[in-house]
TrEMBL record, chain B:
It comes from the Eukaryota. It catalyses: ATP + H2O + phospholipidSide 1 = ADP + phosphate + phospholipidSide 2. It is a multi-pass membrane protein. The active site is at 428 (4-aspartylphosphate intermediate). This is Phospholipid-transporting ATPase. ATP binds at residues 428-430, 542, 589, 612, 646, 727-729, 839, 845, 868-869. One of its GO terms (biological process) is protein localization involved in auxin polar transport. NCBIfam families: ATPase-Plipid, ATPase_P-type. Belongs to the cation transport ATPase (P-type) (TC 3.A.3) family. Type IV subfamily. Its cofactor is Mg(2+). Involved in transport of phospholipids. The lineage of its organism: Eukaryota, Viridiplantae, Streptophyta, Embryophyta, Tracheophyta.
């Protein structure tokens, strides 16, 4: 690519410019807009090689990503419907709000070996954790320090109970997910580690270790889970995870980790307490056991997308090559210029 | 002091024979004291209680837009008048309410920054005006200090009504003054009104005898008292009605006694005057209109885009609100009750029981959220860009004029891109195209041509054809050294340095030069130190004649009452002798007579009539025996005219005594008659006298074009810009100049519209106003219709190269510009290749400009140098002032000032094109990036059940426009060059891109917006899909809103900046820094912002270092989005560049490769790009080629036939 050519004035700025009090503009390549510059234009070479390079990079990346995703083993079990006793299914909301026992047993089969750590998630669907009213309904300062216990203005209507501030206040905390899972493999309990499921920064900086739940779920209506008032918020990892609101209405949240490998063919019994009401808004609940790869969970999207884009670019490289060969340019044919065809424009 | 008076005691009535200058009491004076005529001025006692009671305005003149007190409110108001800013103000206020989807600070801060930046810019601009005011108001003038007879220097601003001032030669008048007396006995003074009406000739003003007779010196004012009663301040420069009460006398005052502010005292040692109008009451300031604030076409279109964007925003908000309303209603204990939102305890904004209200409130919230569709920083960015562009224009070394030390100066930066869209240039003549100096360059004496000087026109034509015979002359002319004499550019050793005596026709030569030295009205001025004589003449060509005579050995050195004294060479003795010619009569020049004569008696007692005039009137007045050289002279005259010179024929005759006595008697009678046919009587008598002349020869004076004017006009014509000349000059002069700068050429059909027809003249003699008007109107309309018919018929049956030129004079223009006919006039004018309006008043210039502007809807540029061009400059879309040697009026009211007309070429073709292409790309890109950003917000909102939850953190939102995408777009606007300056010159037709507005067409705008939509869709859906289920990193953590927001935002920053990389065509280190810097800045910001306490950073706390950066999926997603979002544009651009290149893209190709390996092709593009022009020197050369050989025509026909077959 050519660099800029200095125009005729290049030499004119030297000696005479030194004259005193002259208003003569100072000469420099900058002020005369003659800076050396790269002036790229899309020549066939550039176009084709760009597409080729992209496809050369993208296709392998796609393959790697796809493999990573394929390596992940994931067991998903939707239980919201099945965990309602058949007779109660006509009015699920009444059931879930009622006092009947909510215990429910599920059996999962491991179809492929799962190496530890295996993550246990619950997945909610059609749950708008990203609703503006919901997102705003929290008090960050109150969560961080007992000093700000009374900063509850953002939390309405879940701000106080009988005039006393609720800690943690707000709709998010109030609607804390309260299904519980107890796992066992071949009738031996499978330990689910509930520590270390929250982001470190949340635990250390956003949720104070001197802040204890107060008046929580003491309002006229109980939302979700209750909290142990003796454990500081920084240790209430379920709450911390829950309060990092999800971006989309379908989301998973980490429940715990299984720190043993699961073998192919293992069956896992899950005893769960189906407490959480997703029925009133037709939300689904799922239990997910998943391993991870370097890329995260099971999601073929990135791999496929990379392969597709790489493929498209390869195709485009081909197409352009053919096009350039078959139809060599009529480079700069002035007849393209509309105003040359209609001489009305300029006299 | 008295010396001056004695030195020039001369009878001016002799010179200004026809001017009657005595004012009498007219009806107007009876109105004094009545309404509109209430001003009372107590001369020389401004402190008297009576004067103070009047409390007239001071002489302080203010041209600033703001005062210190009004600056803040007024400029704020100006800012919020822009609908976009107002919108942001409203959203800013709304953001203080609970409706807001984001924090108030993040909405108000960018608005504050933007408004502050704009206000600072306004402030700086106004400060410039303020400084000018200070300069003007602090000029010094001598003022009479009360009653002690002493004059002291005071600043202009201190002047009060009634003060007596003394103004010296070459000084400007500080206010409107009543002339009391001057250094001349009869209290005459000469005034140059260049700043008022642009006329360069001197005007004569004369004080009343009653005052001049008693006031001669400073001391005389000690006891002087007088009262002036006169009209109130008004804008009419040519009338003044007042009465002077002087010691029981009541004397009528007229405009003859009024010296106007900003005009200049010339040729007179000093005058005394009483201040009548001060400051803003003065006529010149009353005349000055408020400079219209001009906005460029692009900005006006941009407003439309903004309205369109408002439409989109409201539509999206509306859709969102409806869905939101429906969804919210569902929460009313229905099947989809989202209990976690506690709908039964919701405030009004989310209350399912009052869903319609909630929807309405949501609408407001959404409008705020989508405010990111409207680029808040657009205006301020454009302003910054334009200021920087102006700095580049100002510092362009190729537009710097060494001689006057003046660089180009963009006074307002609003109109830079408009420079790239100019369709019609309306140019003043004097001082703009021409230097306003006449140069005696050639003459033809006794049928022999003398003078080897080369005119600008010849030079330009010679340059073009390259290497012709003229090129040698060119070198000679260039080599010419030695002190250059102003007005004289005559080179011929046959007659120079007294050599003329050796010529065969020496006696004719002598008569010729003597005539030059005697037949004029110039006044000599001898510099006592050096003895050299200089001249003050009414017109510069007259000065050129006297100078020429002096240089050729006939030095006119004194004008007395008796006559004209000349030092000349005596043919017999060969010595210099002083001769006095007794001046008997001057037969003045006027446009009807087209000649002037003097009658003198030489020392031998012979009576001579010396005459000079235009060829058409002179040749018919020659005596039968005086036509010896007629044929040769005619040839020469035609030659000169073709070279763009102004010719005059010189002839004389001897008058016998009886004839003169008779003439003298008749002439004096006629002069003193008061009947209405006085003028025609004089005409008749002089006509009788100026007959039977003997031809001496012809002179050729170059109305010197400014350097490079023909070239520049040619280039502009090639760029498809139409050029109109609007001048106050005579028709002949204007036509001459038209020829000189190739706007007219020989075979062009001239359509001349004037009212010089015998019929009209006859009516004028009859003097019935209505009848004259009616007849004139009819005549003009008829002429226009004829012209139009000629044009429509024209090209079809005759040579297609035939072009038309329209020449119209001021009087006709008055009628042509009437509402009923102006469309007709415009049709006619646009059908002509050249339009020249002569004898046009400043007002007409402005009207014509307005007509072109509004009639064609195209961009007009007016260029001029004098105060008479002010109206035109202000009326045009762009006013360009020529910063000449003096007279700043035009520059002050212009938008841009350049030192020379020829810089217009660079200004338009290079800077104009660049600015246009930059600004239009910039605006397109601005909307692109904001749509990209805004649509991601909208899409995300759709996934939050339209609850107006933004996808990004508050600060991300507010800083997008300010930090992460602002600098590259500014760099685009300031530095980008689609085509380098060299190629702009080489392919002038490139300019048409601007004229046709191809780079800012709706197609392109919508295309860019569509591109933004594609980018946004790519960003949102790829990010959303890649984080589906939100299993995000190897540690099993899930991604929340913060992470999706962070990823999306990263993608947006990358995509818009990479899009910028693809869009620009000129990549300097500046671009590298700002583009990669913006991306880097985002990461740096994210880290810094993420590191501060979560109180402030909320959900962005540590989001990058902890969550995003360690996750490979984040980086992979970014890369994927980056490429995917840009592929459509890249494909589009590749195809377009290759197969459908725009004009600038073709030139880019040529620069890139074609230049070296395919010269034929380059030439082809170039040839085809240069349209066959009908004006300019290229066209003229082409025409002379056509004339020279008819076979070319044949050749052309063959080519056409061949090319048709090909098709």
């Amino acid at each position: 690519m050519s660099s800029n050519m200095a125009s005729s004035s290049a030499g004119s700025g030297d000696s005479s410019a030194a004259r005193k009090n002259s208003k003569r503009p100072k000469y420099s390549k900058f002020t005369q807009q003659e800076l050396p510059a790269c002036k790229p234009i899309l020549t066939p070479g550039w176009v084709i090689s760009t597409f080729l390079i992209v496809s050369v990079i993208f296709i392998p990346l796609g393959v790697i990503s796809l493999f990573a995703s394929q390596d992940v083993v994931e067991i998903v079990d939707r239980y919201d419907n099945d965990c309602i006793p058949a007779p109660a299914r006509t009015n699920k909301v009444a059931f879930i709000q009622g006092a009947a026992p909510k215990s429910c047993n599920r059996t999962l089969t491991v179809t492929k070996r799962m190496k530890q750590p295996i993550y246990v998630y619950y997945q909610l669907e059609n749950f708008y954790q990203n609703h503006r009213r919901y997102v705003k309904s929290r008090s960050d300062s109150q969560l961080r320090s007992p000093k700000f216990e009374n900063q509850i203005s953002a939390c309405k209507p879940e701000d106080d109970a009988g005039g006393k501030p609720i800690v943690p206040c707000g709709l998010i905390a109030w609607s804390l997910f309260n299904d519980t899972y107890t796992l066992s493999r071949n009738n031996t309990p499978l330990a689910v580690n509930k520590k270390g499921i929250a982001w470190k920064s949340d635990k250390e900086h956003k949720f104070g270790n001197k802040v204890f739940p107060k008046n929580f779920q003491k309002g006229n209506l109980t939302g979700g889970a209750t909290l142990n008032p003796d454990i500081p918020l920084s240790e209430q990892e379920d709450l911390i995870v829950w309060m990092r609101t999800a971006a989309l209405p379908t989301f998973r949240k980490l429940y715990g980790k299984i720190e043993t490998d699961l073998e192919n063919g293992d069956t896992i019994q899950v005893t769960l307490q189906n407490n959480y009401n997703t029925y009133s808004f037709s939300g689904k609940k799922k239990l997910v056991l998943s391993t991870t790869s370097w890329l995260g969970g099971k999601n073929d999207f990135l791999g496929i997308a990379y392969l597709t884009v790489g493929g498209i670019c390869f195709f485009l490289a081909l197409a352009f090559t053919i096009m350039y060969l078959v139809k060599p340019r009529r480079l700069g044919d002035p007849s393209y210029l509309s105003w040359n065809r209609n001489p009305g424009g300029g006299r | 002091m008295a010396g001056g008076r004695i030195r020039r005691r001369l009878n001016l009535n002799n010179i200004y024979a026809f001017t009657c200058r005595k004012s009498t009491f007219q009806e107007d004076h009876s109105q004094i004291g009545g309404p509109g005529f209430s001003r009372v001025v107590y001369c020389n006692e401004p402190n008297s209680p009576a004067a103070e009671r009047r409390s007239y305005a001071g002489n302080y003149v203010r041209s600033t837009k703001y005062s210190p007190a009004s600056f803040v409110p007024k400029s704020l108001f100006e800012q919020f008048r822009r609908v976009a800013n107002f919108y942001f103000l409203v959203t800013g206020i709304l953001s203080l309410t609970p409706l807001s989807p984001y924090g108030a600070v993040s909405a108000l801060l960018p608005l504050g920054l933007v408004i502050a930046a704009s206000m600072v810019k306004e402030g700086i601009e106004d400060w410039g005006r303020k400084r000018q005011d200070i300069e003007v108001n602090n000029r010094k003038v001598k003022v009479h200090g009360g009653d002690d007879g002493m004059f002291r220097e005071e600043e202009w601003r201190e002047l009060r009504v009634g003060d007596i001032v003394r103004v010296e030669k070459e000084e400007f008048f500080p206010a409107d003054l009543l002339l009391l007396s001057s250094s001349y006995e009869d209290s005459v003074c000469y005034v140059e009104t260049m700043n008022l009406d642009g006329e360069t000739n001197l005007k004569v003003k004369q004080g009343l005898e009653a005052t001049s007779s008693r006031l001669h010196e400073d001391f005389d004012f000690k006891e002087f008292k007088a009262v002036v009663r006169c009209e109130d301040p008004n804008a009419d420069l040519y009338t003044f009605v007042g009465t002077l009460h002087l010691e029981e006398q009541r004397l009528p005052l007229s405009v003859q006694q009024l010296l106007l502010r900003d005009s200049k005292l010339r040729n007179t040692e000093y005058v005394y005057g009483a201040v009548v109008f001060t400051g803003h009451d003065t006529k010149v300031i009353q005349n000055s209109t408020v400079p219209p604030s001009k906005r460029s076409r692009i900005e006006r279109k941009m407003d439309k885009i903004i309205y369109m964007m408002f439409g989109v925003v409201f539509l999206m908000s509306f859709i969102g609100s409806i869905i939101f309303g429906i969804v919210t209603r569902e929460d009313r204990g229905g099947k989809t009750e989202r209990w976690y939102l506690k709908p039964d305890e919701a405030e009004i904004f989310f209350d399912p029981e009052r869903a319609p209200m909630a929807a309405i409130y949501h609408f407001l919230t959404a409008v705020m959220l989508y405010s990111y569709f409207i680029p808040i920083s657009l205006y301020v960015s454009i302003e910054i860009v334009k200021v920087l562009q102006s700095i580049f224009i100002n510092s362009d070394i190729l537009m710097y004029y060494e001689e006057t030390d003046k660089p180009a100066h963009a006074r307002t930066s609003n109109l830079n891109e408009e420079l790239g869209m100019v369709d019609t240039v309306l140019s003043d003549k004097t001082g703009t195209l021409t230097c306003n100096s006449m140069e005696f360059i050639k003459c033809s004496i006794a049928g022999t041509g003398y003078g080897r000087g080369v005119t600008e026109v010849e030079r330009s034509m010679a340059m073009r054809s390259g290497g012709s015979a003229l090129a040698d002359d060119l070198n000679v002319a260039a080599d010419r050294s030695g002190p250059k004499i102003e007005g004289f550019n005559f080179q011929d050793e046959r007659v120079m340095r007294g050599n003329w005596v050796k010529q065969r026709e020496a006696s004719v030569l002598q008569k010729f030069f003597r005539l030059l030295a005697v037949c004029h009205t110039a006044i000599p001025e001898t510099d006592e130190a050096t003895g050299t004589v200089s001249y003050e003449a009414e017109s510069p060509d007259e000065a050129a004649f006297v100078v020429a005579a002096r240089e050729l050995g006939f030095e006119f050195f004194s004008r007395t009452q008796n006559g004209i004294s000349i030092r000349e060479l005596d043919l017999e003795t060969g010595k210099k002798v002083e001769r006095v010619y007794r001046l008997l009569n001057v037969l003045e020049f006027n446009s009807a007579r087209k000649r002037m004569s003097v009658i003198v008696r030489d020392e031998d007692g012979k009576l001579l009539l010396l005459s000079k005039g235009a060829d058409n009137v002179m040749f018919e007045r020659l005596a039968r025996n005086g036509r010896t050289f007629e044929e040769k002279t005619r040839e020469h005259v035609d030659e000169y005219a073709d070279a763009g010179l102004r010719t005059l024929i010189l002839a004389y005759r001897e008058v016998d005594e009886d004839e003169y006595v008779k003439f003298s008697k008749n002439f004096n009678e006629a002069k003193s008659s008061v009947t209405e046919d006085r003028e025609s009587l004089i005409d008749e008598i002089t006509d009788q006298m100026e007959r039977d002349l003997i031809l001496l020869g012809a002179t050729a004076v170059e109305d010197k074009l400014q350097n490079g004017v023909p070239d520049c006009i040619d280039k502009l014509a090639q760029a498809g810009i139409k050029i109109w000349v609007l001048t106050g000059d005579k028709m002949e002069t204007a036509i001459n100049i038209g020829f000189a700068c190739s706007l007219l050429r020989q075979e062009m059909k001239q359509i001349i519209i004037n009212l010089e027809t015998p019929q009209i003249k006859a009516l004028e003699k009859a003097g019935e106003k209505d009848v004259i008007e009616q007849a004139s109107r009819e005549s003009v309309v008829k002429q226009m219709e004829e012209g139009k018919a000629l044009i429509t018929r024209g090209p079809s049956d005759t040579d297609s190269h035939e072009a038309f030129a329209l020449i119209i004079d001021g009087k006709s223009l008055t009628y042509a510009l009437e509402d009923d006919f102006k469309q007709k006039f415009l049709d006619l004018a646009t059908g002509c290749a050249s339009v020249i309006c002569c004898r046009s008043s400043p007002k007409q210039k402005a009207l014509v400009t307005r007509l072109v502007k509004s009639g064609t809807g195209k961009t007009t540029l007016a260029i001029g140098d004098g105060a008479n061009d002010v109206g035109m400059l202000q009326e045009a879309d762009i006013g360009v002032g020529i910063s000449g040697v003096e007279g700043m009026q035009a520059v002050m009211s212009s938008d841009l000032a350049i030192a020379q007309f020829r810089y217009l070429e660079r200004l338009l073709l290079v800077h104009g094109h660049w600015c246009y292409s930059r600004i239009s790309s910039m605006i397109c890109y601005f909307f692109y990036k904001n749509i990209t950003f805004g649509v991601t917000l909208f899409l995300y909102e759709a996934y939050t059940s339209f609850s107006a939850q933004p996808a990004y953190n508050d600060w991300f939102l507010s800083l997008f426009n300010v930090f992460f995408s602002s600098l590259p777009v500014i760099a685009l606007g300031v530095f980008d060059q689609d085509v380098s300056a060299r190629f702009c010159y080489k392919f002038p037709l490139l300019y048409q891109e601007g004229v046709q507005n191809l780079l800012f067409s709706w197609k392109r705008i919508i295309g860019w917006m569509f591109n933004g939509l594609i980018s946004a869709l790519a960003i949102f859906f790829i990010c959303k899909q890649s984080q589906e289920h939100q299993l995000y990193n190897p540690n099993g953590k899930t991604a929340g809103r913060d992470i999706l927001g962070g990823t999306m935002y990263t993608c947006v920053v990358w995509v818009v900046n990479l899009q910028m990389v693809l869009a620009i065509s000129y990549f300097t280190w500046v671009q590298h820094i700002v583009i990669w810097g913006s991306v880097a800045l985002w990461y740096i910001f994210l880290m810094i912002y993420g590191a501060i306490t979560p109180t402030f950073s909320t959900d962005a706390y540590k989001v990058f270092l902890e969550a995003l950066a360690p996750a490979p999926s984040y980086w992979l997603t970014t890369l994927l989005v980056m490429i995917f979002a840009l592929v459509p544009y890249f494909v589009f651009k590749s195809v377009q560049m290759r197969y459908f290149p725009g004009y600038h893209q073709m030139i880019q190709w040529i620069r890139h490769e074609g230049q070296s390996n395919d010269p034929e092709f380059v030439e082809m593009v170039r040839q085809r790009s240069i349209k066959t022009t009908t004006v300019g020197s290229t066209a003229r050369r082409a025409a002379s080629v056509r004339r020279s050989g008819r076979f070319h025509d044949q050749l052309n026909k063959n080519t056409i036939a061949i090319s048709r077959e090909e098709k």
